[in-house]
Amino acid sequence: MTQIRDTSRDMRIDPDSFAGGYFRNAVYRHWDPCEDVPQELLEQDRERLLAHDGDEEKFEALRTTLALFGAGEEAVTEDLMPLGMVLDDIDDQMFLSTQIYEEAKHTQFFDRYWREVIDPVARAEDAEVTRPTDQRYFPEGYVELFDRTEEAMERLLTDDTPENRAKAYCHYHLTVESVLAQTGYYGISARFSDGGPDVYDDDVDTPELEGLVEGINYIRSDEGRHVGFGMQKVRHLIHEERVDETVVQDTLMNLLPFVSEAVEATRTEDIDPTPLIEYATDKVRRRIDVLTERDAELPAVERLVTLEEDRDGTSAD
Questions:
Q1: What's the Cα-to-Cα distance from 51 to each of 55, 124, 209, 264, rounded to whole Å?
Q2: Helices 274-292 and 181-192: crossing angle, nearest 10°?
Q3: How many CB atoms lie within 10 A of CB 38?
Q4: Phi, psi of 315 (to 5 degrees)
């Protein structure tokens, strides 16, 4: 008779582990990208975009933003697989299964929004109908960031060391998921939500896109969990497995210019992305402080997934 893989535990999972808590939170907060963002909100977004006098530059900036998000979600859905293959703790594996599932849901939301909002608006405005995979939307730095992330994750399959795990988490969870994505969420909330953070000049006229913001809020909630998991893992690697903190600092700082280049791609004549680049830079510095200071504490997962954010951009995560 074949023996089960692990005989060191009385039970299969540890409900008190941080990964176990994250798993339960993911199950509890499940949402459906095809049902929980109502069709009426997407129809309203279409009408509001059409009522905005066909500003081609701003519409193209919106398409660029959504293309970058959609491609990023698709990439991270694929790139997380190697980590799942090297993790040996069942609680970690269970949480990671929810993360891969959630990244796939995010991909579906952005695909739906392009099909149901972006393309119909383009046709109605007699504008060029483009695909979210069109290479015009992806600056070189953005492509390089995801190429490096893929390489960092795949390296685990051949050279799974504590240092390489730290680098993988820094690429995936702390740069792509945390700094790049959350800067994008912040920018979308500022531009398309009446109650969003005060980032842009009050004279900048943009429509309130409640359907887009609703989907982004669900995604942000998921990402708070993902970022918290990565930060817990990197803190453990630094403080318990003696990974040199400069490995983490250097990795995060070396990737920051690629984030800035991606944000810069959404610039228009009257929308300056500089405040978002500053926001991203501040995110990196705050991440480094929490990761390297032994006495620093991460908020509980229930706090990480809340959407409360001050108008100056401070948040729990």
A1: 10, 11, 12, 27
A2: 140
A3: 12
A4: -155, 170
Angle between helix axes 90-113 and 18-28 (nearest 10 degrees) is 30
- Tell me the C-alpha distance between 109 and 211, whole Å: 11
Residues of the chain with pLDDT under 50: 1, 309-314, 316
The predicted structure's pLDDT at residue 196 = 63
- pLDDT at residue 310, rounded to an integer: 40
Q: Which of 129, 132, 142, 145 is nearest to 70 (CA)?
A: 132
Answer whether 47's CB lies under 8 Å from 210's CB.
no
Sequence letter at residue 148: R
Report the predicted TM-score, pTM, of the whole model to 2 decimal places: 0.90
CB atoms within 10 A of CB 41: 17
Q: How far is CA 3 from the centre of its chain?
A: 40
How far is Cα 174 from Cα 176, in angstroms, rounded to an integer?
Answer: 6
Fold of 36-304: Ribonucleotide Reductase, subunit A (1.10.620)
Contact residues for 315 (Cβ-Cβ < 8 A; gap 6+): 308, 309
Contact 312, 303 (CB under 8 A): no
DSSP per-residue string spanning 240-298: TS---HHHHHHHHHHHHHHHHHHHHTT--SS---HHHHHHHHHHHHHHHHHHH-TT--P
In angstroms, what CA-CA distances link 310 with 25, 273, 281, 315?
24, 19, 18, 7
Q: What is the pLDDT of residue 23?
A: 95
* Per-residue pLDDT, 159: 97
Q: Return the pLDDT at 218.
A: 95
Closest CA to 135 of 58, 184, 69, 67: 67
